[in-house]
Amino acid sequence: LLQHAQQQAQDLGIKFEVDIPFWYDEVLYNNTLGKGNLAEWIISNVDGVSIMAYRNTVPALKNIIKNEMNYAKLYETPIVIGVETMDLPDEPQLSFATKGEKSMNLMLNQVIRHYTKNRYFDGVAIQSRT
User: Fold this and answer.
1) In this predicted model, what pLDDT tens digit does every residue of 61-74 receive, in sequence order?
2) Bridge partners of residue 81, in order along the sequence
3) Tell me, what DSSP letter sits at residue 80?
4) Residues with Cβ < 8 Å from 46, sequence gap 6 or more?
5) Would the pTM count as exceeding 0.90?
């Protein structure tokens, strides 16, 4: 499906970018396409990726996407880091809901500064469901 969509986008002269969860770097595949790591395969076959990182501290965000950022450099694929703002009472470490907008912006600015020299860092995305 991804290869077909990538080809269609290429034929139309548009970029093909996808969202993936942070845990795809833990998924291995072994099929007709070969074998390897799912996050790496996706990053190597699309024009850009948004990682649904969903952590609310700088160390946790950097840690959860370190593999994807390495793949981004290897395959020259831009990466956007996604964070969550919806209240998740059972998993508060996944969202900025209880931390507030000011705290979230301070933390995201730290993440942006950390990756500012990485040419494959393409910014942050804020998931907001109201």
Assistant:
1) 999 999 999 999 99
2) 51, 124
3) E
4) 2, 6, 16, 17, 18, 77
5) no
